[in-house]
Here is the input.
Amino acid sequence: MAMQESTETGNSLMPSDKLLPWLKRAPLLPEAGAAGTPLVAVIMVICFLASLALAGFFAVSEAANDWTSDLRGSVTVQIKGQDAITIASDTGKAMEFLRDTDGVISARALSREETVDLLQPWLGTSNLPASLPVPGLIEMEVTPALRQQLDDLATNLSVAAPGAMIDDHSTWNDSLAASARTVQIFAFGVFALIMGAVCVVIIFATKAGLAANKEIVDVLHLVGATDKYIALEVQRRFLVLGLRGAMAGVILAAVCIFVLVVAFGSGIGAGYFLPDLSGGGGLFFYLLSVPLMTCLVAAWTARTTVLRTLAKRF
Here is the structure.
């Protein structure tokens, strides 16, 4: 009768005042062996890697949103010419035209020094002679409505300043978005594979634990324990082990991320064309999903494995 009450309790949602004692009960499988400390260590390492993969996923996602939003809101006007005088004249004409154009939020002409600085990564320093006609550049922000009419704007601008060309950064924007999606898919794929590894480890540990405690399982069947009751007890055991290992792995990953953020200042990607892993509260909130998913995967895998194994044996 008591065994049936325990089985019925396991098949229903437990009240909060009964859940903690249920988790603290003595385990059906002993601490030693595959279903003990070694399993906790394995889950800790797996969850550490899963946390890093998840952190990389959200870092790339936030960085991609920042990059593409910046490119979507800006437009560059390039002015070419035979000599510096022509370029300066066309730049002035282009600025006058843009100031009088509806939908232009702001426009700023870059100086020659600023343009040369932009070319330094490709041409190096002090490699540009003063006589070289460096194209003029105008940084411009436009409204979404005007951005949809850039072809008309480019045509009218070329009339006002014959050497002017408009670059809406669409190629860069599409390339960045595609690259970000690829990295996100890769990071999420790694996370999914790691969760799959948790399933494999739990299956192995469950079968090893049942094989090592075959006599205990036989005695439980003799006194009237059902397969569901045994599965519930094993599920509880692996839920506790998964929680221990997952929390240890996530805490270790959070500490590593925090140390890296502190060591590199404001973010890992600060000053570089890399995702900025700032280590904000939002990131650590997302990391809490790793122990939750690990515990659910471990409990479900253990229960399913026990039921299938006992069904074959008995």
In short: Residues 81-162 form one domain. Residues 73 and 141 are 6 Å apart (CA to CA). The first strand starts at residue 74 and ends at 79.
